[in-house]
Every structure is written in C-alpha cells, then in structure tokens.
Design a protein that fits this description.
It is built from 16 helices and 15 strands. It is an alpha/beta fold and 471 residues long.
Length: 471
C-alpha cells in the first residue's frame, strides 16, 4: 500500500519530473524538450504548472465556448452528480438527455426555420438528435446514418461518401477515411473503402487556376455534381463538408458554394452533412454556420463548444423526416444501429443545457459577431503593418491569416519549419495560445471574449510577428 501511495504522490507532481508514459498529439521526443502542462484556467486565461499565464485565443481548441471556470456550468454538473451520473444506454436514456435533445430540436428549428429554403427539401418541422462523446464519433455516426437511411428507403446501393481534401472529420477509421489531410491519413492507410475526395473551395489558391473575381463558375462546387455522375448517383450516399474548413487554413467558401451543394444533393438524392464540430454553437455568429451561410443541411454534426469542454459531448442532429425512416416494427426495421457506452451522459447533457442557456441568455452569438468584426479589423491592421499577410479568412470568432513572402505573387516563405510555426511558437513564448501551421495562423477565442481581450490578443500577436521576422 505504501508503494501505491508513493506512486500516486509522484503522479500528482509530474511537472517536476517528465515521464515517458503519456502519448501527446505532438511528436513526443520534440514535445518533451519543453513540455506544456496546463495547471488551471479562468475566463480566457490559462496558467501552466510553472505559473506562466497564457491568453487563450483558441478556447482550448475551439471548445471552451463560455469560458474557463464558468460557475453556471460547473454548478449544473455538480447538481447532476448528486442525482444521476450514469444511465444504462443499452436500455434507454435519461431525463437530462431528453431535455437537451428537445432543446436542440427547438433551437435548430428556430435557427434554420428563418433560412430561405434552398433546394427541394424545404423547411423541416422538427429535428432529431443522437448524442455521442466526441467529434470523431458523431461524424462517424453521420456516415452510418446516411448509409442506413438509404438502405431503409429502398436504395441499398448508396454507400459512398464524398468529402474534401484538406478536411478533418476525426480520428476513428470511418471519420479519418472521410478526412482529406494527407499527413494524418498516410500513416494509417489503407483506410476504409467508399470514400471519395474533391478539391475544397480554396479561392485564394484555386487548384483550377481560376479567379473568383473573373467568374470562376464555382467549379469547386459544380465538380461535386460531376463526380456524383461519374461514380453513378445510385452509389453515392452523402456529401460531408465543414462549412468553414479548419485544417486547410480556415477555408471560407464563396457565398454560392454551399447553396450549390444543397441543390446538387437534392438532384441526386444525396444527404448533405455539415460537420459543425468547430463552427457550431455560436462560433460563426449564429448558433450554426448553416444559418450564417443560409443553407439547411440534412445532418448537422456538432461538438466541442456544445458542452464548453466541461464534459465530453457531441451531437448528430438530423432532419425529422430522415429520422422517421428508422421507425417501424422491429421485425422489419432495426432502428439506427450505432451506439457508445457514454452516449447521452447525464453529466454531459447537464453541461450542454447550461452552456446553451449561457449562450442564448448572454447573447454570445451576437458577441461573436461583434468581436469577430474587431478581430478582422485587427488582422487587417497587421496586414498593412507587416505586408506578409496575403489573406484573411473566416467568420465570427473563427478567423485565420495566411502568411506570404510576397502578397502580389502569393509566394510563400521558404524558411523551415515555416513562418507560421515560427510566429506561433513566439506567440506561446509571449503567453498567447493560438492555432498555427507552417503557412497560417488562426484565432478562435471563447464566445464571451471582450473587446479589451481581443485587443490584447492582437497586441501579443503583433509582438510575435515582429520577433519572428527578426530571427
């Protein structure tokens, strides 16, 4: 027993002794040179185990939607702990999950009911929710839903999923197969069959050599219709896209793009799935990016900000008319064949209800729009000051900048490991947490961020760019 107590005591002070017993998302040998271990957080601030303070311009990872240490959410979880912390998912659900499902149905109906109906499916009277724990699980569930739906409605040959290069839909094998990020796919190949990829709407660097201003014809969208034809519409089940792509560098599509996808999917009886794991729950200035872009999909996958990061929670929200296909006598209809141990967790759903109430009552969607405008103006000032920002992309509190050596030619820096990485690492040293890749950098602060905090984030980024350029 003494040895066990000693091990527990040692585990509680890992900041004093680096251990090799943990996998992290970065290369472990590299990360271990200067490991980042967060100890506590409050509002839009983190403190690491050494007491260093970081301004969180990323809301953890687009997750802490209502801020760290939000007492409303914490107290809701504590109250639920006293009543019921786990219910048996194989036998049914629980009142808190039902309450959250009803709330999401009502909010989705209200959010998208005002959107002008594009395509033949029209306005939906109700929406049905399936809870999961993570983004990967919920996009995987959407893939299964699309295939099973077509099987139940007399189209068993429709199984293929069309998604985009540079996309990220998750780490499970199905969601990874739908993803189009080479660096994460290659090490796990061969992946699942039935997944087809097309080019994303990267207007700044159009893969077709066209310019949006010169009437490009939105080839990135119309091409999807061509691919469906070439694959045979009888074999295509769904098109899955992020309304704003993240891992490709905040890919913000032209206004015609998503409406065109809606029309194409209607034409070929293909489900349109929006992966709103990041863009959902107010991030773009509306509850869903579907409302921001004015397009109603068949399925919305949301997570991250849904529970504010307090308890793992995600949700697949589908049109009620699609869910109706899964009703019927068990002898003929097995229902939706998909499930996980912790789905509909009472603790997670209690957190989700509290987060949504905070978002709606504090008008955090409105704040995301207002602070998003301030953030965009700040990025534009930096672009004028340094002349190395070629493009600014995104909506609300999901915005990114692409770094270039020459804004006229769009030529990139040839430094290693990339100017974006250099600036991002300088930002960390300056106490600023943001998303950075070799050629781009992004902000996604909590929806409750203030104007003063946005300004301080921009000031720290300004300092970091200046330092990186002088390296």
């Amino acid at each position: 027993m003494t040895a066990v107590v000693d091990l527990i005591a040692e585990a509680q002070t890992t900041e004093q002794r680096f251990l090799r017993q943990i996998f992290v998302r970065d290369q472990m040998a590299e990360w271990s040179k200067d490991p980042l271990l967060m100890a506590r957080a409050d509002g839009v601030w983190y403190w690491d185990v050494h007491g260093k303070k970081y301004l969180d311009a990323l809301s953890g990872i687009y997750t802490v939607s209502v801020g760290h240490n939000n007492r409303r959410v914490i107290e809701a979880i504590q109250r639920q702990l006293d009543r019921l912390h786990f219910s048996p998912p194989m036998h049914g659900s629980n009142p808190v999950a039902v309450q959250l499902a009803n709330l999401l149905s009502d909010l989705t109906t209200a959010s998208l009911g005002a959107v002008r109906a594009v395509g033949s499916r029209g306005v939906e009277s109700h929406w049905t929710t399936k809870f999961e724990c993570a983004g990967s699980e919920v996009t995987e569930a959407a893939i299964k839903l699309a295939r099973q739906y077509h099987r139940l409605t007399g189209n068993p040959g429709k199984y293929k999923i069309i998604s985009r290069y540079l996309s990220w839909h998750g780490s499970t094998m199905g969601s990874l197969s739908a993803s189009g990020l080479k660096s994460r796919r290659a090490v796990n190949e061969p992946l699942a069959a039935g997944f087809i990829h097309v080019f994303p709407p990267t207007c700044y660097r159009c893969p077709f050599g066209k310019s949006y201003d010169d009437d490009c014809g939105i080839t990135c969208a119309t091409l999807i219709g061509d691919v469906i034809e070439m694959e045979d519409p009888r074999t295509v089940a769904a098109v899955m896209v992020e309304p704003i792509g993240h891992t490709g560098g905040i890919i913000d599509p032209p206004v015609e793009y998503l409406p065109l996808l809606r029309e194409i999917c209607d034409r070929y009886n293909v489900l349109l799935v929006f992966d709103e794991i990041i863009t959902g729950m107010g991030r773009t200035g509306h509850l869903f990016a579907a409302e921001t872009f004015g397009v109603v999909p068949d399925v919305i996958c949301t997570g991250k900000g849904l529970s504010g990061g307090y308890v793992p929670l995600s949700a697949m929200i589908c049109r009620g008319s699609i869910a109706d296909a899964f009703w019927g006598p068990v002898s003929e209809n097995p229902g939706f064949v998909e499930g996980h141990t912790f789905e509909g967790s009472p603790l997670a759903c209690a957190a989700g209800i509290a987060v949504i109430r905070e978002i709606m009552e504090q008008d955090l969607c409105g704040n995301a729009r207002r602070q998003g405008e301030r953030l965009r103006a700040g990025f534009e000032r930096l672009a004028r000051k340094y002349n190395i920002i070629g493009d600014i992309r995104g909506k609300g509190l999901l915005q990114g900048i692409e770094f270039v050596r020459d804004p006229q030619t769009k030529a990139r820096f040839d430094v290693e490991p990339g100017i974006g990485m250099r600036i991002g690492r300088r930002a960390l040293a300056n106490g600023l947490l943001c998303r950075f890749d070799p050629h781009w950098l992004a902000f996604g602060p909590a929806l409750c961020v203030t104007a003063e905090q946005i300004d301080e984030m921009l000031d720290r980024l300004d300092r970091s760019i200046d330092q990186a350029l002088h390296e």
